[in-house]
Predict the 3D structure of the following.
Amino acid sequence: MTYLLIKAFSKIACRLPLSAQRMIGKFIGNATWLIVPEKRKLMAIENIVLALGVDGQTAMQIARLSWTRFGKMLIEVMAFPKIKKDINYYVTVKGKEHMDKALEFGNGVVLATAHSGNWELLGGALALHGYPLVAVAQKQTNGDMDRLINEYRALVGMHVTYKNGVREMIKLLGQGSVIGLLMDQDAGHDGVELEFFGRKASCPQGPAFLARMKNAPLLPTFITENEDGTHTVMIQEPFFVEKTEDKQEDIKKTTEKLTRMIEDHIKKHPIEWFWMHNRWKQR
């Protein structure tokens, strides 16, 4: 039943102009902000103050906008069937030459990004431009939502694998695929401890580990929203993991380099990052 309701909502979203989609997305975002637990809001505000050095009022505004933007992001994902028909209207891709260069090495590509901007649209845009994009996803607790979002990822050309499917990632990387990994959330005991905005945090080693194993280039890539509601994908220059006899140190150095790139992007676009996540959990 839930699946059918979401599909019906998607059909409505696809019929709406961009201005109406933004209006509904804004309404959903503002409405859901009211039910976010106060404890979660205060955690986000504190994290923003400590990370960006802003005052409490500014941090509150950033936290609120960081959450409410998910309403528009939801509408955009629901409108994938429409967006697919004219991706260049919705998304501008900059740095395609870097992707092409990375693929020329013939070992696949590890694309490292963050929960900033509409990362679902990032993957969809690259897939629709003909790149063999593999979305590494977290399985949703709601089965209907998980089924639908994976259908829509496939609709725009993405291959989907779950985070625990490491063997499949290695196989696909060897076949020349672009493995998209989000690497900005707490990695628990599996991560490497580094400074993130001046505080110790557990950082995911997956991108560096895969890239080193398969000698594949790393490709830092981000997406940001423009003032008119469209988006820009920014592909940066590829680089390789330095390979020495100290495997763990190689992975740590590369993970730190990627973490600094994520920091720089968040500083430029603070309202687009997911501050509600408890990034600095106690180890």
User: Anything to note?
Assistant: The two ends are 41 Å apart (CA to CA). The chain has a mean pLDDT of 95.
